[in-house]
Amino acid sequence: MKLPRLSRAAFERHLPILTWSRSYDRDTLTSDAVAAVIVTIMLIPQSLAYAIFGTSRALAVGPVAVVSLMTAAAVGNLGLQSPAEYAAAAITLAFISGVLLTLMGVLRLGFLANFLSHPVIAGFITASGVLIATSQLKHIFGISAHGHALPEIIASLLASQHLTNPITLFIGLSTVGFLFWVRKGLKPLLLALGLKPRLADILAKAGPVAAVAITTLAVWVFDLENKGVAIVGEVPMGLPPLTAPSLNPELWGQLFMSAVLISIIGFVESVSVAQTLAAKKRQRITPDQELVGLGTSNIAAAMTGGYPVTGGFARSVVNFDAGAETPAAGAFTAIGILLAALLLTPLLYFLPKATLAATIIVAVLSLVDFSILKRAWGYSVVDFAAVAATIVLTLGVGVEMGVSAGVVLSVGLFLYKTSRPHVAEVGLVPGTQHFRNILRHEVLTDPFIVSLRIDESLYFANARFLEDYVYNRIACEEPIRHVILMCSAVNEIDMSALESLEAINSRLQDLGISLHLSEVKGPVMDRLQRSHFLDELSGKVFLSQYEAMRSLSTSPHIDRASAAH
Amino acid sequence: MKLPRLSRAAFERHLPILTWSRSYDRDTLTSDAVAAVIVTIMLIPQSLAYAIFGTSRALAVGPVAVVSLMTAAAVGNLGLQSPAEYAAAAITLAFISGVLLTLMGVLRLGFLANFLSHPVIAGFITASGVLIATSQLKHIFGISAHGHALPEIIASLLASQHLTNPITLFIGLSTVGFLFWVRKGLKPLLLALGLKPRLADILAKAGPVAAVAITTLAVWVFDLENKGVAIVGEVPMGLPPLTAPSLNPELWGQLFMSAVLISIIGFVESVSVAQTLAAKKRQRITPDQELVGLGTSNIAAAMTGGYPVTGGFARSVVNFDAGAETPAAGAFTAIGILLAALLLTPLLYFLPKATLAATIIVAVLSLVDFSILKRAWGYSVVDFAAVAATIVLTLGVGVEMGVSAGVVLSVGLFLYKTSRPHVAEVGLVPGTQHFRNILRHEVLTDPFIVSLRIDESLYFANARFLEDYVYNRIACEEPIRHVILMCSAVNEIDMSALESLEAINSRLQDLGISLHLSEVKGPVMDRLQRSHFLDELSGKVFLSQYEAMRSLSTSPHIDRASAAH
Questions:
Q1: What range defines the domain where residue B118 resides?
Q2: Are A100 and A224 part of one and the same domain?
Q3: Predicted ipTM?
């Protein structure tokens, strides 16, 4: 194998840092550093929460809500007992996911993410938000519960043997209330008090930090730990240890499908937000290169005790709003979180779990948006079916089933539609050379000619449908002499459809009817020329439907229409 | 629920016998009876062979080669020991398959069969023929072997501890040679001897009966049984017993996926041959009604000790060639086979297994046709990939894997193609109102207008592709003012694609470029009108691309072209 000589351009494509680092100056540095400080402040409570509940300390990379939930579901299904086994499985999941993402990037499989439709993604995120919020309720009530789907979680909440601790409930509910108020009411208040918009914005976004500080202080001052309020307790301090993923083939087998789903969901979330933000600045991203970036991040996470990570909506938007200009802002954030992990963890000993749960609930409920159901219903039944199935199955059975069902259903319904294509019988719009559906427009036709516009590529799933359609159409009393298939919407004729066309041609010929094609596209024509079909065709192939009608019609209408023009 | 009043027409649709029995006369009876005699003669050896090797006596219904192979593979995978368990599993398989087929018919799921493309079916039948022929070699050589895929069967033939029995080998090879000669050489010889074509045809087709008679006689006369020639021995005589399928849920679980595949393959084989033959007589079949017919046949098979059955290519063609006019011919054949089962089985005691194997080998080798590989290669790489994968995996791994891989691959490649659609930049063909690809035709364009014809429905899998394509196209030095998306090939715009169109519209608007649509089809337009997109669209929706160009272009070329017309 000859190694390709890597040009400077190729290097820059695969190592994007080479591009932006050359123009990195003092101003850009300031912007990035400010963004890093803001994101660090934002991330401390949420990241710590995931780190604590996920038994992982990989704060420097991005654990996000939905992927955390999927990780918990995947690892929870294994029926492991000890936290160490749990952590080892999560690390292995991150590693498999990292390898898969990197491979997908190298093999340029980024297009696979396109099979998750927008409605399925929206439904999945909404349902996941509800699931995550529900699963945190136990910390607000100070009771125990478990499960990965709504019926299970609710049943286990209701069946809990513990009594609700009133102080825990008070902390949880007041934090939830405070955080919602911070979101909606604090910024307008600060602006009314005369603060500058930028500063008001930063203060409003730092609300969770205030909640963490106040409730932690309250626990310490009033000794609430001994009054039944669950606290975070000892948080491992310092740098993350180097870890190695398990290479146990059985564990890999159990985790593989979960890793595939987590990789694709994480990738879609990343690419969606990256594209949205890139578009705002007229920049472009390369999905396959993003895959490699995410893959290596996950491998790095696995090496430092982390679980699967991805680029999250919330943190990326904060980073962008805070003024980040290059990926260096991410590195600065990492340094900030590192310092927090080294220095701040002892301060979090008295942090109530109810506060963390409240932070998570408020964060994920902002992702919940059931209006997608209404919009999909108004637009198309198929889109509605995909969203509804995704939401119902995610809530009722679990995240993996929900997203898989959404994909399978949307692909299945697409295939079903293409297997029964719309076929329009067309006629000439008077005064033009344009042909439209005879049922929708006032058009001119010829009693001896049937013009059928087939609104789909012809392939195996609809080859038989086409035969049936044509045979049914000609089974009438009219003295049909010509059938013209208008192929303006036929983007492909595969071998099965070719055989059907041959069958139609020979059957029509037996009945004394000629078969013609019109408006056959270049790539389709290229392929037909490689078969014997064009030699056997009883009629002709016309450049346009208009030319076909002019040449075949004996009706004075058609000629008059064209002459009038 | 209100019960629908069944009209006479509905009765006839669901009980087709009502239609043809009314016009049943003496001539039709004669034709059907002659066909029945011929098919009975044809079927005795082959049906007996399947009955013996499949440990089933359901001769009255149609066991066919490929479905027999799939049944053997499915039941063989269960690791059963006794022939009784084997038979019970086969009966249960027939029952599940019957229920599935009937349900599919009632639910009008006949269209599912369309997802098996012609090349996949052809590849599957060819590979199955090779597998069946190879699996019969052990009887020709008089050794033992097993397995459901080629490597396994060949390895087990080579590893056989038995020595080849020379007499068995002689019987086997000479029967194979004789049967091939009968197929190719006997009919011309009989015609040369002055026989009438119809009689020569019947005699030539009765060749297997002669082979069975001669070899059976030879074994009896020369006492070959005691010289190591394996014979059929005791064949259960008389009417089939009434049997009941097992209702063991575990067995149902193990057999379910096999039953699904067998049902679909059997149905496709049935419908293909039925459609081909119906077309020859200008008749039509109703696939959903065929499903019910096949389903009840399978349930009947399960009730009488049979295994999964279907309408086979070979027997149906024989039936048709022999002059059958109505399904009554099938009933007469059933009576013929019943009489054979009652009276002829003792005569078959000395029939060598090698003769049966030779009959099967010659019959299935006529199904083997590797030329499909060459034809697919010449026509399209995608079709070739589907055939090649089907053949290689059927031979190498087994029938179920082969056909599943063929379906998954052809559907997957279709989806892949639609996710990266062909987009043509189009211009006006001079002297017409027709627009074609600027790279293939001499066309007129306007430097301020980009006209893109999108050759695919817009749906979730290609929504992002469209955005990328449009953004890349406008990222140039040209002073573009209008982008027209020509939607003649867009048969569907789903919600994901709608969101992409909204994104394109707003991005183009920011750049001072208007977005227009042309030739939007009725059903697509209906849907767009239910969204806000048309209100937000910066440009217009034109009936035709020509109208769009006439209205937007300032180029004198375009006006001159239309004026010249």
A1: 25-412
A2: yes
A3: 0.77
